[in-house]
């Protein structure tokens, strides 16, 4: 097979050719058919420039997003063409999936072969994601080797953005930058990063609000002196970050004591940041967050204020019950969050700005070390958010912070992360699940699927306690000073149900002792039993420090 390299040698296109050659060699004679003619990889614009006769094969009017691509077979040649260079790389991976059955389930592991006997040949049709922005957020994962594996895996599964705090990027950015650049992935920097630039507290005026659950204080955005100092430092830093596409700097992760005017003053800060970046010829997007930090609704709800005309919006609702979707949740807090979401969505569509959703599907703090597998919730959420025509969605990865020895948090979050990636391109959750379970041996699949579906039924119910017990969770009995006796009984009953049901699942002989599914299930049983004992222990409440 000849690879004909027409057009420019953009680094992402060069990488795409390298991936094509690696995949072709890996699958030679193993699966599917091998294309023996010319292979061309590049952008639509380049393809039409060098092969204008293919103009009728590409239909830009069917394209929605910058990562759209087509695969064209014409006169013995194969054309893998993307609307962008990164999209052409996605086309390489999609061809490997369709022709050779290649799927990438867990990072750093062997490619899983999933023969697709009912594959629909879409040659010439536009492949398009469901949203433009599709990202993962890393705040504290200071592990460059793991991040390199994740970068490779995320791109193979169609993700186009990596979001880091400034602190994390400063620690590992130099080691992972080349892996990001050669794949054309966009970088967002920000998060709760104000102190990264202003670590001397005398430089920042704080609000006077006191919060019994944390020593953090909220920044006073009404004062502008420190803002110019910070912006100067931000601009200087950003000039040296490759592939930087967006800044998303947030307030401190604590409720504001000055509800009136806080959100508007913060948004004005982000607008000033954008203006100064443009003046310094640093061409990146800026967004502000709306987020119920410390359960502060005034930091999430628009409350009739105007939307910005120059910066975009990231919406994060903390405390959701993942047993339910937004439209069927019985909880007043979820209903209130949905109203806020719809209000922002409508207002931003009117103003022409973009709305991105921030989700917690891979967050071991929000979801705890009794970590729920929620594939159907994720798939249903994607359909709901798509119906709102949001610009995108990002998913937070947080390591396990509970004191649990030998807990495989990287493995545990990967199921939800895989479904999240796939659901951003495919609305068929059953097909996604069928592909996922090919990871396991045929004789194991039924039993492991039964175990995971039981985890999906039971474990999301624990998330309903995040708001009633705040700042404690169902895994923090000693800190749950708000818990009533009735709540304790309900939590214990759920934990006992979890322990008994999962223990019964693990009796299936097909789930081999020592395997990751068995180890995870055993962890759930032991953790649930331990929490039961602690919830039932009299006088276990301790003041929050």
Characterize the biggest β-sheet: 8 strands, parallel, barrel
Shape: globular
Structural class based on helices, strands and sheet pairing: alpha/beta
**Terminus-to-terminus distance:** 66 Å
Total DSSP E strands: 13
Report the total helices: 15
Q: Using only CA atoms, what is the Rg?
A: 24 Å
Q: What fraction of residues sit in β-strands? A: 5-15%
Strand order of the largest sheet: 6-7-8-9-10-11-12-13
Q: Helix proportion of residues, in percent? A: 40-55%
N-to-C order of helices and strands:
HEHEEHEEEHEHEHHEHEEHEHEHHHHH
Mean pLDDT value: 91
Poorly predicted ranges? none
Kindly summarize this structure in a few lines.
This protein has 545 residues and is of the alpha/beta class.
What does this protein structure show overall?
Helix 1 (11-27) runs parallel beside helix 3 (85-100), helix 10 (375-387) runs parallel beside helix 11 and helix 14 runs antiparallel to helix 15. The termini are far apart. The strands form 3 sheets. An 8-stranded parallel β-barrel has the order 6-7-8-9-10-11-12-13, surrounded by 4 helices. Strands 1-3-2 form a 3-stranded mixed β-sheet. 41% of the residues lie in helices and 13% in strands. It has 545 residues and is an alpha/beta fold.
């Amino acid at each position: 097979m000849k690879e004909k390299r027409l057009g420019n040698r953009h680094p992402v296109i060069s990488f795409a050719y390298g991936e094509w050659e690696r995949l072709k060699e890996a699958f030679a004679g193993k699966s599917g058919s091998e294309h023996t003619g010319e292979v061309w990889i590049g952008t639509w614009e380049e393809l039409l420039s060098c092969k204008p006769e293919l103009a009728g094969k590409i239909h830009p009017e069917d394209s929605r997003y910058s990562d759209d691509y087509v695969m064209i077979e014409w006169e013995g040649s194969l054309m893998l063409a993307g609307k962008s260079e990164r999209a052409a790389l996605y086309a390489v991976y999609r061809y490997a999936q369709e022709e050779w059955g290649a799927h990438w389930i867990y990072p750093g592991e062997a490619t899983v072969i999933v023969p697709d006997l009912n594959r629909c040949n879409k040659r010439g049709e536009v492949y398009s994601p469901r949203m433009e922005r599709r990202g993962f957020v890393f705040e504290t994962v200071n592990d460059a080797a793991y991040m390199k594996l994740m970068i490779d895996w995320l791109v193979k599964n169609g993700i186009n953005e990596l979001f880091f705090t400034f602190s994390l990027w400063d620690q590992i950015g130099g080691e992972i930058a080349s892996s990001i650049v050669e794949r054309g992935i966009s970088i967002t920097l920000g998060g709760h990063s104000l102190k990264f630039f202003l670590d001397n507290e005398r430089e920042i005026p704080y609000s006077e609000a006191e919060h019994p659950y944390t020593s953090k204080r909220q920044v006073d955005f009404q004062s502008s002196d420190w803002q110019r100092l910070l912006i100067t430092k931000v601009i200087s830093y950003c000039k040296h970050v490759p592939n930087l596409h967006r800044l998303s700097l947030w307030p401190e992760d604590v409720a504001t004591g000055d509800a009136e005017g806080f959100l508007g003053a913060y948004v004005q800060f982000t607008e000033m940041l954008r203006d100064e970046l443009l003046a310094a010829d640093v061409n990146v997007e800026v967004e502000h967050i709306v987020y119920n930090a410390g359960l502060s609704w005034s930091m999430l709800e628009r409350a009739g204020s105007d939307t910005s005309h120059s910066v975009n919006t990231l919406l994060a609702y903390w405390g959701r019950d993942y047993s339910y979707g937004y439209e069927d949740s019985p909880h007043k807090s979820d209903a209130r969050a949905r109203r806020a979401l719809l209000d922002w969505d409508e207002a931003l569509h009117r103003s022409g700005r973009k709305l991105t959703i921030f989700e917690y599907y891979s967050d071991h703090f929000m979801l705890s070390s009794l970590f729920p597998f929620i594939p159907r919730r994720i798939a249903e959420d994607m359909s709901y958010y798509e119906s709102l025509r949001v610009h995108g969605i990002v998913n937070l990865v947080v390591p396990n912070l509970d004191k649990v020895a030998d807990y495989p948090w990287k493995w545990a979050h990967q199921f939800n992360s895989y479904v999240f990636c796939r659901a951003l391109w495919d609305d068929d959750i059953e097909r996604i699940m069928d592909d996922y379970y090919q990871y396991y041996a045929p004789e194991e699949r039924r039993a492991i699927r039964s175990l995971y579906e039981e985890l999906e039924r039971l474990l999301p119910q624990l998330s309903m306690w995040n708001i009633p017990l705040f700042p404690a969770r169902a895994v923090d009995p000693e800190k749950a000073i708000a818990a009533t006796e009735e709540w304790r009984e309900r939590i214990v009953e759920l934990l006992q149900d979890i322990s008994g049901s999962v223990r019964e699942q693990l009796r299936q002989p097909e789930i081999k002792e020592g395997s990751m599914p068995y180890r995870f299930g055993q962890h759930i049983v032991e953790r649930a039993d331990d929490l039961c004992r602690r919830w039932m222990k009299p006088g276990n409440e301790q003041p929050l420090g």
